[in-house]
Predict the structure of Response regulator.
Amino acid sequence: MPTKILYVDDEDDIREIAQISLELEPQFEVRSSASGSRALVDAAEWQPDLVLLDVMMPGMDGPETLRQLAASARTAAIPVAFVTARTQTHEVVRYRAMGAIGVIAKPFDPMVLAKDVKRLLQERGSGRQLL
């Protein structure tokens, strides 16, 4: 059974690169959303195993999207990780306090993105936290 990943970013090029990069991992099934509001619908309908969420998006930003995912019974159990250039320690601590399971630094390396996501999922499964 594939691991379903929803990648959310308002930038078309980044979404496309991320999707292609993640699909290099045969066990991943990947979909993408162009906005936080679209991600709420997509996550509720598709029930991914992980949402990768850009922090800075117009309209509904990543933190607000996470809050709304966590507030909905249909999406509250779906783990979320942020993909962001804002990775200073205090920012990562704030993201974790919001409920994110981890942070992937942007710009990410397309050749290792799938490996980073697998590590996030494995560490979540083992109960360890990832910075």
